[in-house]
Structures are given as structure tokens and as C-alpha cells.
Amino acid sequence: MSGILTIDRKKLVLQAGQIQNGTPTIAVVKNNAYNFGLEFAVRAFLDAGITAFATTSLKEAEKIRSITDQSMIFLLNPTTEFEAVRGLDLSITLPSLTYYEKYREELSRISIHIEYAGLFNRSGFDNFKEVEQVLHHQAQMNEVERFFLEGLWCHFGYADEFDGNYEIERKNWLGFLAEFDRLDMTPEYVHAQNTASFVRDGILPGHTHTRLGIGLYGSKPYSGLNDELFVQPFELYSSVVQIREMDENMPMGYGGSFVAGRKTKVAIVDIGYGDGVLRKRAEYDCLINGRRYPIVSLMMSHMIVEVDEEVSVDDKVFIYHPDMRLDEYTFKGVGANSEQLATLNYNTLTKEISHES
Ligand SMILES: Cc1ncc(COP(=O)(O)O)c(C=O)c1O
After folding, report:
1. Exposure of 141 by Cβ count < 10 A (0-12 exposed, 13-18 middle, 19+ buried)?
2. Which residue in 145, 181, 211, 343 has the most C-beta neighbors within 10 A?
3. Is 124:154 a contact under the CB 8 Å cutoff?
């Protein structure tokens, strides 16, 4: 047996349901739904009552449309594929005044969400004056030539940090919304909040939707939160293929990557960085028979774990488990939740969907 990733569909639906807490939600399903599998996740989120989705890629948006013809599908990245957008009835970001000036003729009857740059600043309008220029220009066009103003949005880049920047970006964005409020227009979607922002603040005033990613998939955006609020719906494990007794100075692994310095026992486990176990993750432990043991060396398709008499060949070795949560390693500095998920290699891992719990 090599590495196995099991995803419990019922837990995913339950988690997606509970994190929303009754608030309308746009599910972020970019990058193959945080590597859970796009179609699988979209169907699970539909079951959890979600009817709006966001992704960065047209290809993924097309796939989502083939699954659900009623949902709002929002393209987060600027696109110039206007015919495809119209054909698939997608909603798109309006990312800047420059973009508007270049493509305004092509936006006719397309649903757009005006993006505010804020502190995150990946793209978006810098200030409300630029938005006014767009709206002024639109007002001069014939109705059939205009875009359809469906939404306003921005992204909080600091909500999972507690250094004061989140308060600044939130204030700037709420100021932008207040300026917009003076116009007599009410877009159907006003969305800015990722998981961290929503967990910190609940739904902010003037917002119609949250725009959640990692919380739907069951990981905590920052430490100190309750496990029950974030049910992790997956496990990653492999098994012990050999046990070796080691002498004090016996080297193991490439270039003798592990020398115990004492007589000890190690387990060889058939999962490695080729399956998506990050090198930083392997600086920590794994779970065998309910106990934690240190990973002492990581190779492409194996890792070495220092064990004791309790561990035998064929025992399951968990990298992620309800008692060994992915977010624990996020907070230990291994990498972002999404980074640990995105690296999992489905070409080598076996993926099993369970429907049992
Ligand atoms: C634009 C945008 N909105 C929302 C999200 C969801 O954030 P989170 O996964 O922290 O909930 C992301 C994630 O990267 C994003 O890029």
C-alpha cells in the first residue's frame, strides 16, 4: 500500500453547512477546490446549500456550469474571454479603470463585480473616484451596451493576522462601500470576507455574502479556534513496510540523512515528497496506533520514522488525521493550509471518498 487520502463526504457537507452559520456564501473552489476535486466539492457544497461559486480559471468555471445551471459563478481573475463568459453566463471581476477603458465595449450585458484593491492590492480599483468615472461612462451608453452591475468585492489579505493591518483594510473597504451607498444602486452581491474575517467579525454591515475557502474544507484560518467549528474531513496515511534495528552510528537514507546516535528502531513508510509530503512537514511527527513518533528522514517515496516496540509492519501511519490536524502544522510554520493541501499528488496517492460517517 502506498499513500491514501480519504475524504469523508458527509463530514465535508457538514463542515460546509456549519461554517456558513446561516449566511449566504460564495464558495471558493479555485485550484481544483483546494485540491479536494472540483466536481466532488461543488456537488458537496450544493448539498450544503451553497449556490454561488468563485474560481480563478475559465476552465474551472466551465466545469462548474456543467454541474449547476442555476448558480452564480464568479471569475476572480480578469478575463478577456468575453464570448465564453456570455455563453456560460459567468460573472466577472472589473479589476481596474485601465481594464475598463480598454474593454468597455466588450462588456455589454455581462455581469460584473467591481473590485476594490485595498491593502491586498493584487488588482482592483484604487479609489471610489475611479469607479465614478466608470459609472458616469456607463450612464452615457445605451442600455443594451451597458454591463450589468451585479457586485462589489475586495479581498482581505490580513484577516488571519493580528498585527492591526486587518483593521485598516476593513476600515478602508467599509469607507469605499459607504461612498458607493450614496448612489442609488444596490448590487446583488457585496462580498469581501474570507474565512478568517468571517470567523472574527461575523457578516460585516452592508455585505450580502461571505466568500469562504479554507473554512469550508475544515481547516482553521488562525490558531486558538475550537476544533468542533472546523471538522477536518480527510485523513492522509500510508503504512509501515519494514522495521529496522539501528546501531548507534549506522547511517540511513540518502547521504546518511539520519544517524540516530544510539541504538534504536525505525519504521520505513512508503510515502514521501513525491506524494506531496512537504519537507517542512517531515520535520515533525506522524501518528501510529494513536501515538506520535518523529519523522527522521524524508525521501521521494519513503520516509523513516523512529519508533518503539509497539510499532509493526503494516501498521497505518497517519500524516493527517482528526487527532493530527493539518492546521496544527500550519501554525507550526510548515506552510499555509492551502499550500499543504495543494501539494498532495493524486497521480501517486490513492484517493478514496468515504460516505460512511
Ligand atoms: C480572492 C479570494 N477570495 C476568497 C478566498 C478564500 O480565502 P480563505 O481560504 O482564507 O477562506 C481566497 C483564497 O485564497 C481568495 O484568493
Report:
1. middle
2. 211
3. yes
- 194 and 270 share a domain? no
Q: Indicate if 332 belongs to the active site.
A: no
pLDDT digits (tens, 9 = 90+) for 309-353: 999 999 999 999 999 999 999 999 999 999 999 999 999 999 999
- Catalytic annotation, pick one of 102, 129, 171, 254: 254
Length of the chain: 357
Nearest CA to ligand 1 atom 1: 155
Q: By three-state DSSP, how is residue 264 classified? A: strand
Of the three residues 224, 245, 269, the one that is the final residue of a domain is: 224
Atom of ligand 1 nearest to the CA of 216: 11
The answer on whether 1 is annotated among ligand-binding residues is no
Query: What are the beta bridge partners of residue 75?
Result: 55, 92
Q: Are 268 and 242 in contact (CB under 8 A)?
A: yes
- Predicted confidence (pLDDT) per residue in 1-18, tens digit: 689 999 999 999 999 999
Task: Please report where in the chains the cell 534495528 appears, as a residue.
Answer: 245
- Whether 265 sits among the annotated catalytic residues: the reply is no
**Residue 357 scores a pLDDT above 80:** no
**Which residue lies with its CA nearest to atom 8 of ligand 1?**
213
200 is in an annotated binding site: no
Q: Is the CB of 221 under 6 A from ligand 1?
A: yes
Both 215 and 147 in one domain: the answer is: yes
Does 220 lie in the same domain as 238?
no
Cβ count near 102 (within 10 Å): 11
Distance CA 294, CA 305 (A): 6
**Which residue range forms the structural domain that includes residue 345?**
234-354
Asked if 173 and 282 sit in the same domain, the reply is no
Q: Is the CB of 272 under 6 A from ligand 1?
A: no
CB 190 within 8 A of CB 153: yes
